[in-house]
């Protein structure tokens, strides 16, 4: 697993180099599902670089990426978001990252989230803890929702997918503090690092959460579905916390 983690870190650093190159030199961009669903040269080239690197090292593995999907099947599957926070990146807002996880026989075994502008490297191997630049991570000790800092995110078109608006309103009406930074992988990493007490979002994809999910669990936190059920990759409803506020957060989201 140590060798696999080194490969994930090297692949993430390749992607970070591409992010920073285009951030300085400029880039072209286009849209996918709608006018605010952006994709840039950096997204595509970062994913291509990650794929090439991982497949050269591990030709019997498969890669699931945000931009190119997945070809084939295998017991070892890399789950890649080459640039999480594309809208932030496109506007020069410095909150975006690369996220890489490795799933083995259906279970996430390692995860890497690399903040491109801060060069903060979040890593985890199942059963061996979570780390930020090699320092051990633990979730926050805050025990009440009122003393917590929370984060969430919204889909590209809330008119088509308005569901999170009701959850957001319920949280705000309780006078709670919420941020909307715009990169789920980093939001999850921040829960693991104790910078946030909780995070929830709907309509997430595997590449958004695979690495961050493991980071939180290895840092002592809790990740579930929206009703408190065990989280499973592919569940598009996710609630994450330090564990201490989890039930209170779930109750608030559901208006209880």
From TrEMBL:
Catalysed reactions listed for this entry: a myo-inositol phosphate + H2O = myo-inositol + phosphate
PANTHER family with a match to the protein in the record: INOSITOL MONOPHOSPHATASE, INOSITOL-1-MONOPHOSPHATASE-RELATED
BP GO terms, sorted: inositol metabolic process; phosphatidylinositol phosphate biosynthetic process; signal transduction
Binding site for Mg(2+): 66, 81, 83-84, 208
Cofactors: Mg(2+)
Superkingdom of origin organism: Bacteria
Classification via Pfam families: Inositol_P (PF00459)
Entry protein name: Inositol-1-monophosphatase
Similarity-based family: Belongs to the inositol monophosphatase superfamily.
Enzyme Commission designation: 3.1.3.25
Keyword vocabulary terms for this entry: Hydrolase, Magnesium, Metal-binding
GO molecular function: inositol monophosphate 1-phosphatase activity; metal ion binding
InterPro entries to which the protein is assigned, alphabetical: IMPase, Inositol_monoP_metal-BS, Inositol_monophosphatase-like, Inositol_monophosphatase_CS, Inositol_monophosphatase_SuhB
């Amino acid at each position: 697993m140590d060798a696999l983690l080194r490969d994930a870190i090297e692949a993430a650093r390749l992607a970070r180099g591409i992010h920073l190159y285009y951030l300085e030199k400029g880039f072209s961009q286009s849209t996918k599902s709608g006018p605010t669903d952006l994709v840039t040269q950096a997204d595509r080239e970062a994913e291509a670089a990650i794929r090439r690197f991982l497949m050269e090292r591990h030709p019997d593995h498969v890669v699931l990426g945000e931009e190119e999907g997945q070809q084939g099947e295998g017991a070892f599957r890399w789950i890649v978001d080459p640039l999480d926070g594309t809208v932030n990146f496109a506007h020069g807002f410095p909150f975006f990252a690369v996220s890489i996880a490795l799933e083995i026989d259906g279970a996430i075994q390692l995860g890497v989230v690399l903040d491109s502008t801060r060069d903060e490297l979040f890593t985890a191997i199942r059963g061996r803890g979570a780390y930020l630049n090699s320092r051990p991570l633990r979730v926050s000790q805050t025990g009440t929702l009122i003393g917590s800092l929370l984060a969430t995110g919204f889909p590209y078109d809330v008119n088509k997918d308005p569901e999170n608006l009701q959850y957001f309103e319920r949280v705000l009406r309780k006078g709670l503090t919420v941020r909307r930074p715009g990169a789920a992988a980093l939001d999850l990493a921040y829960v693991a690092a104790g910078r946030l007490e909780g995070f929830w979002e709907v309509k997430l994809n595997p590449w958004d959460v695979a690495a961050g999910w493991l980071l939180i669990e290895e840092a002592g936190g809790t990740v579930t579905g929206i009703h408190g059920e065990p989280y499973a990759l592919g569940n598009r409803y996710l609630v994450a916390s330090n564990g201490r506020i989890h039930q209170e957060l779930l109750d608030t989201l559901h208006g209880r």
